[in-house]
Amino acid sequence: MRYDEYRAHDAVGLARLVADGQVRPLELLELALARYERVGPVLNPMAILLAEVGRARAAGPLTGPLAGVPFLVKDLEQHFAGYPTSAGTAPLQAIPAEEHSLLVRRWLDAGLVIFGKTTTPEFGMKAVTESSAFGATRNPWDPERTPGGSSGGSAAAVAAGIVPVAGGNDGGGSLRIPAAWTGLFALKPGRGLVPCGTSGGDALHGLAADGVLSRTVRDSAVMLDVLAGPDPGARYYRPRPGGAYAEAVRTPPGRLRIAVDRRSPLGTPIHAEATRAVERTAALLESLGHEIVDAAPKIDGIRFATDFTTVWTAHAAAEVAGARRRTGAPERAFDFDTRALAAAGRALAARELIDAYERWNDYARALAALHADHDLLLTPTVAEPPPRVGSRPLHSVLESVVGPLLQLGAGRWVTRHKIFRETVFATMAATPFTQLANVTGRPAMSVPLHRTPENLPLGTQFIGPPDSESLLLRLAAQLEQTAPWSHLEPPDPAPGTRGPADRAGRGGTEQPTITRAD
């Protein structure tokens, strides 16, 4: 099989070739590794390359719906036994996981050939995939730009053709944001459908959900069939609806009434191309017979962003404290923007955290009121095209203005100052739409239906009511059939070239010397 033939198939298609004996799993893996060798030095999508682990698995007997398909997991919460889950931070790079996480076990049971872990920003706390430990991951459509985050390594790997689908997770948009900026499809499942397993519990107070980024809707549907299902130890879970998601995508969604909201909940400007992306999607929906209505949930966007950030910074503080306890690492071992977020979290009073968390109920009810009269909510996924690598206002402003004050121990005063709040909101201005689905626990998807004049992808988001994963997938399949995207391929980076100078990082290095823990 040639690379162009490999790239032309999605995961379901490759699995069929393996099942029919037309190609061997090891042959597919070698194609994936060769592709990584070609584009990896430019894009930096991998935190750990497990080539020999993958070869050993590909050479053995494999069963499952995706047997023999090369696959990558995200280096955040998706633990592979015997190898570290670094979470994008240097202090955790030397601690091997004791066992596979629940999701990794389910992927292995499906027959996938895992051969690496993809990059993430430190603790997955940012919407760009840049860290001091691994450097910057770059967008295949323009290596000067970010693929987004925090599942940016997986997005870059899928968009560049290393694998047809890869693992990710989403606590504030971390599947949908990189999907929107790299031309991929991503569905964030609703709360409780895909269990977090023992490592996550109720991850990020229920904000986070695991899933995949894919080039085709049917790959995401099959993957949801693989991942969804109860975990006997979980505090709660949602029973799967009747029927397989892979079968559901064969059925049209029927005529839908879809609310569309083009405005940023923060009141900040939206790039003209993001508006065009929504308008193009709305026009396409109307051509398919759906009803489009201007409507939005009645939510105070600033209050919502403040409440989301309150819980987010509290978790940043907990992540840093937990990593320090496990490793003995000093505070300076972490990225500065992580330390600033953690300082904000430590400065919170318990009542502030509880009040913010309790208001999530108000936002869920406001969204439910909208869904009472509308099947889905359509918004931009992101407010602008992918930013350039290194343009991180949170890092630069906080380091120059807030940093000296933090060094003096004035964390509580600093994190309540107008400069800090405005800087955090300025960072959120590029991605203000995705957090609502996380806070309310609703399923949501990003669909790649628009390109800018520079040929940069820009996705649009649909948020559904509870238990609407099947409906979202059916609509996505209809849109995919009408305006297909999986054949679109980014320019091939020239062999031996790299993106603009930044820290070379340790991305993509095999780690065979780590002692296996199992």
The Rg value, from CA coordinates, equals: 21 Å
Given the structure, what is the number of helices? 18
Categorize the overall geometry. Answer: globular
The biggest beta sheet is recorded as: 8 strands, mixed
Structural class based on helices, strands and sheet pairing: alpha+beta
Beta-strand portion reads: 5-15%
Q: How much helicity do the residues have?
A: 25-40%
Distance between the amino and carboxyl termini:
35 Å
> How are strands sequenced across the largest beta sheet?
6-8-7-12-13-11-9-10
The parts where pLDDT drops under 50 for at least 5 residues are 497-518
Mean pLDDT: 90
Number of E-state strands = 13
What labels describe this entry?
518 residues, alpha+beta, eight-stranded mixed beta sheet, three-stranded mixed beta sheet, 18 helices, disordered C terminus
Question: How is this structure best described in words?
Answer:
Helix content is about 40%, strand content about 10%. α5 (about 100-110) links the parallel β2 (about 70-75) and β3 (about 115-120). The protein has 18 helices and 13 strands. With about 525 residues, the chain is of the alpha+beta class. Mean pLDDT is about 90; it is low at about 495-518. The longest helix is centred in the middle third of the chain and has 27 residues, at about 300-325. α3 (about 25-45) packs antiparallel against α4 (about 50-60) and α14 (about 395-405) runs antiparallel to α16 (about 420-430).
